[in-house]
Specification:
By secondary structure, the chain is α/β, with parallel strands linked by helices. It has a single domain, classed as Alpha-Beta Barrel (TIM Barrel), CATH 3.20.20. The chain contains 13 helices and 10 strands. Strand 9 (341-344) and strand 10 (348-351) form a beta hairpin. Helix 11 (252-265) packs parallel to helix 12 (289-301). The chain is globular. The model has no long low-confidence stretch (mean pLDDT 96).
């Protein structure tokens, strides 16, 4: 079957050759600032469980909230909006008794982001993109939740592929340009998401570009399933991600060596969106926008990044400061490597 190439991939790559692009910042901490009540979250859906904290469902019950946040990030200089769908999957929504609303949540979230992106693009004719955000779920294929039964898994591969496919299909139908598989703590989960998107491509007959973003669990540079950033790249590069990178986990200062390692290796765009520093003793992020912008400016100066943004604790002010700090700096040039067989366990292995 012939798969039609993605115009969005071509457009993003064209923009990325000209400048460092900007993605948006945190949604969860921005939503907290609205101080929403249970009634705000629950709306008129009549669900049997409390919905407070279910940020994804706001696409149905209080869409003005995510819309306002999208607008603030675009006004701050973002080129890419991530949909408010980090936990909009059947596994995570089951905790709220809302798993039957997964398709509707993703569809409406993507439509909302697409509409705002189109409005900003029509104002200045600068391309704006929508990345359909898919989180890791709270389950893992690689690890057992029971220390007494290391072979046990709460879910299996086929089920997780179907969970991801359901979400991806609705996001694409709603207008997402890319599927962003983010905060990858388990590389096998990410592979299931890749499989889901590939199945969706076959169904649609057109390319659905993937963005991949790993999260580190410690300063040694590994995710929860034990993979280094180099091993992660070798494990997923067959998917031809339009971007690969890092998000969450730490602030920009702690990610420096791992950004450098990935930038030297990956022959695709590097996208990094760190937390606004490390949380304080109250769990709050108090790194100032200028501080975050100063750290990521170093990456840009050294030619290590193509797309920058923020994760937990970041605000529109952080995104505006980042955008100003890299304005006019040349984007990272994709490296060219000699052809070699490269394999990945927890560590990379290159066969000369």
């Amino acid at each position: 079957m012939t798969i039609t190439p993605s115009a969005a991939r071509a457009a993003l790559l064209a923009q990325a050759r000209e400048r460092i692009l900007i993605t948006d910042g945190a949604f969860g901490t921005e939503i907290q600032n609205w101080k929403l009540t249970e009634a705000d979250y629950a709306g008129n859906l009549g669900l049997s469980r409390d919905q407070k904290g279910n940020n994804d469902i706001l696409a149905l019950t209080a869409p003005h909230v995510p819309e306002s946040i999208h607008r603030a990030y675009f006004a701050a200089g973002a080129d890419i909006a991530e949909t408010n769908t980090f936990s909009a999957n059947r596994i995570s929504q089951a905790d709220y008794g809302a798993e039957h609303l997964v398709r509707e949540i993703n569809l409406e979230s993507a439509k909302l982001a697409r509409r705002v992106a189109n409005e900003f693009q029509s104002d200045d004719e600068r391309p704006r993109f929508v990345a359909g955000a898919i989180g890791p779920t709270n389950k893992t294929l690689s690890l057992s939740p029971d220390v007494n039964d290391p072979g046990f898994r709460e879910i299996d591969w086929d089920f997780l592929v179907e969970v991801y496919r359901e979400q991806a299909e609705a996001l694409v139908e709603g207008g997402a340009d890319f599927i962003l598989v983010e905060t990858v703590f388990d590389t096998l989960n990410a592979k299931a998401a890749i499989m889901a998107v590939r199945q969706l491509e076959q169904q649609l007959g057109r390319e659905v570009p993937i963005m991949l973003s790993m999260t580190l669990t410690d300063l040694s540079g590994r995710n929860l399933s034990g993979h280094t950033v180099e091993a992660f790249w070798y494990a997923v590069r067959h998917a031809r991600p339009v971007t690969i990178g890092l998000n969450c986990s730490f602030g920009a200062q702690q990610l420096r060596p791992h950004v450098r390692a990935l930038a030297q290796l990956a022959d695709t765009l590097i996208m990094v969106y760190p937390n606004a520093g490390l949380p304080n003793e109250l769990g709050q992020y108090d790194e100032m926008p200028a501080t975050t912008a100063g750290f990521v400016h170093e990456w840009a100066e050294h030619g290590q990044v193509n797309v920058l943004g923020g994760c937990c604790g970041s605000t529109p002010e952080h995104i505006a400061a980042i955008a100003r700090s890299v304005q006019g700096l040349p984007p990272r040039v994709l490296p060219r490597h000699q052809t070699a067989t490269a394999l990945a366990g927890l560590e990379p292995f290159v066969l000369a």
